[in-house]
Specification:
This protein has 279 residues and is an alpha+beta fold. The chain has helices at residues 2-28, 76-89, 93-117, 123-163; strands at 32-36, 38-45, 51-56, 63-64, 69-73, 165-167, 172-177, 184-185, 192-207, 219-224, 230-239, 249-257, 268-272. It is built from four helices and 13 strands. Helix 2 (76-89) runs antiparallel to helix 4 and helix 3 (93-117) runs antiparallel to helix 4 (123-163). The model is unreliable at 7-29 (pLDDT under 50).
Length: 279
């Protein structure tokens, strides 16, 4: 009776065994390692200044370039300040007035010197005009200094205005919009998420016995699951210098070129490991 039960159990196990371990095989088999394609980086775009969102130029799924303005905060005050500073920076009246006075005083000094030589002018008059000319020179220098200061203030106000223009720091695609028009943004509040997908990364954990076989710059075959169902070349970019003692594995990072944007981040993948070295 016991022998019959054992035979029956063995037959059942031989039938269902492949199904029990079929899902595990792809992830635990020594020759393969499971992975996930992910963007090179994903940023949570925020703002360095507070303000109300006045315009939004992109939406979820929009492709953006580095330096592109993706949103704009309310800039009413900043624009008015820029116009005021520009008016001051471009105003030459103080310098022109001082130069005009100096020109008059120089002509008057020339006349007084001629009269002094003919004993028709006081020495005191000549000294007074020379002092006025020196004061005019100081006025010109003060006007030039004030105009330079106004130009610097204009540059500062223009920079403050630019802070209200939210720009993308990377080339990528907008994956999420977190704030909309009319909402207030703070320094701790991201406005949107942008993923850089022209290069994709995949991290895999490899048994420690492969450590001496894998080198930075090596090419490995990366098999992508549905919906791509294809194999692409991936370069080893980083090899961790530490082995995890608990799992006896180490991590490597693979880089996949996606300049044509034909691959999808988030797709599961498998990497075929090289044949093990035998002693």
């Amino acid at each position: 009776m016991i022998r019959s039960i054992s035979v029956l159990f063995a037959a059942i196990l031989s039938y269902i065994g492949p199904f029990l371990f079929e899902g595990q095989k792809a992830f635990s088999q020594d020759d393969y390692s499971a992975c996930l394609l992910r963007p090179k980086r994903t940023i949570q775009l925020g703002s360095s200044v507070f303000g109300v969102i006045d315009e939004m130029f992109v939406d979820r799924g929009s492709w953006v370039q580095r330096g592109q303005v993706v949103a704009k905060l309310n800039t009413t005050v900043e624009e008015a300040q820029v116009e005021l500073d520009r008016h001051r920076a471009q105003n030459p009246m103080a310098i022109e007035s001082a130069r005009t006075n100096m020109s008059w005083n120089e002509r008057e000094l020339s006349r007084k010197k001629k009269l002094r030589d003919n004993m028709f002018s006081k020495i005191n008059d000549v000294d007074e005009l020379e002092t006025k000319i020196a004061q005019d020179l100081l006025s010109i220098r003060r006007g030039e200094f004030d105009q330079k200061s106004a130009q610097l203030e204009l540059a500062r106000s223009e920079a403050q205005l630019q802070l209200k223009m939210i720009k993308s720091p990377i080339d990528g695609v907008v994956t999420d919009i977190k704030l909309n028009l009319g909402e207030y943004i703070r320094d701790t509040t991201p406005m949107m998420s942008i993923a850089e997908v022209n290069i994709l990364h995949a991290d895999i954990f490899v048994p420690a016995e492969y450590y001496s076989q894998l080198k930075v710059g090596m090419t490995m075959a990366l098999t992508l699951d549905a919906p791509l169902n294809r194999t692409v070349a991936a370069l080893i970019d980083v090899i961790d210098p530490v082995v995890d003692a608990a799992s006896d594995t180490f991590r490597i990072r693979l880089v996949v070129d996606n300049a044509a944007n034909r691959l999808l981040a988030g797709v599961r993948c498998n990497v075929k490991l090289p044949s093990r070295e035998r002693n």
